[in-house]
Amino acid sequence: MPVKILMPALSPTMTEGNLVKWLKKEGDAIKSGQVLAEIETDKATMEVEAVDEGILGKIIIPEGTDNVPVNSLIGLILEEGEEASALDSIDTQSSPIPASAPCSAPSVAAEQPINIAIATKSLNDERIKASPLARRLAEQNQLTLNQIEGSGPKGRIIKRDIESAITSSPSTMTALTSTSKAAFIDIPMTNMRKVIAKRLTESKQNIPHFYLSVDCQMDALLKMRSEMNAMQTDVKISVNDLVIKACASALKDNPQANATFHETYVRQYSDVDIAVAVAIEGGLVTPLVRQAQNKSLSQISKEMKDLASRARAGKLKPEEFQGGGFSLSNLGMYGIKNFNAIINPPQASILAVGASVKQPIIGEDGQIKVATIMNCTLSVDHRVIDGALGAELLQSIKKYIENPVAMLV
């Protein structure tokens, strides 16, 4: 009997996904472990491997189809010795094609209407480097990729290139302005953006946030960082790496704050797994530095560079961005002095880190001097962490930032 290929659930929050591309054709031989397709989840574009061997007998859901529900039938594998006629015994009607499927889908029933507004792909488009979001926007706006110059890595076409092409297209602008005084573009939300919107709306509405803020003197930390980087060439420590280590040390000292909320209980963790916000095209993802309390600064630095690189390429594994008891969001590199971050449930806290800025302060001797100051704001879930515990955690983070040698002991 043919083996069913179902739309996998690649993350706990995933209810549907986009079938970006089939990497095998009907009739191709399949071996266990080979990559069958690329699926865009709420977090990243991921590769799906085959667990059975045989022949790809039939593709039910064509590539380029959006909003395919988890556990929907997307394809069928013929086992060794099976005839193609065995496919006729499988009911494929239980997995309807979503409304956003391409009009060329071979498995769409004849009586279903075909959306003729969708532009036909250029034959060369498949060979052009472009992100999945850019490809969808190009199709939806009847643009061919070979007419667009990419501004991403190695000339890859990304979202902003498509948006630029849309706004510069005379036909598009004429169509927009003919019915409205103000020109605008409706950009479809990706699965990632939908999940971000849903989860953070629920967080802000349901979690009783409160905020604690301190200013940290950075001069000692910056001096130590400069000395460490001068001593080694294989890895360069960033301010963010040092802040991760400071948070890990502080959470080790305040284990009650290293926790998540679960309605009827609070789960307290022994290891300090810190989720670090990384901006990617179309949203953000929070890869985890696991057991950060036990890692050296060099280990944290190497791990963060690898995680951030693979996060931007959409190559993180689910276990690399799921879980954690604490989050860190650093917007200092954008010149932001301070901000309040929204808690990522079920976590109970997140630290928002601003830019390091030179400013006058009054020293212990009463004299005015110049110091480098960085603002840190802790967002806290009051159901898990009370004011006193939150204050102790933030003061502990401040202690390690201002006395960085202490986090190395």
Q: Order of strands across the biggest sheet?
A: 9-18-17-16-12-15
Indicate the CATH topology of the largest domain.
Chloramphenicol Acetyltransferase
Strand tally: 18
Number of helices: 8
Biggest sheet statistics: 6 strands, mixed
Describe this structure in words.
With 409 residues, the chain is of the alpha+beta class. The chain is built from eight helices and 18 strands. Helix 1 runs parallel beside helix 2 (159-168) and helix 6 crosses helix 8. The protein is elongated and about 90 Å long.
Per-chain topology:
Elements: E1 3-6, E2 16-22, E3 29-30, E4 35-40, E5 45-49, E6 54-59, E7 65-69, E8 73-78, H1 132-140, H2 159-168, H3 170-179, H4 191-206, E9 209-217, H5 219-231, H6 239-253, E10 259-261, E11 266-268, E12 274-276, E13 278-280, E14 283-285, E15 288-289, H7 297-312, E16 326-330, E17 349-362, E18 368-381, H8 387-402
Parallel strand pairs: 12-16, 16-17
Antiparallel strand pairs: 1-8, 2-4, 2-7, 3-6, 4-5, 6-8, 9-18, 10-11, 12-15, 13-14, 17-18
Helix pairs in contact: 1-2, 6-7, 6-8
Describe this protein with a few key phrases:
alpha+beta; OB fold (Dihydrolipoamide Acetyltransferase, E2P); Dihydrolipoamide Transferase; Chloramphenicol Acetyltransferase; 6-stranded mixed β-sheet; 4-stranded antiparallel β-sheet
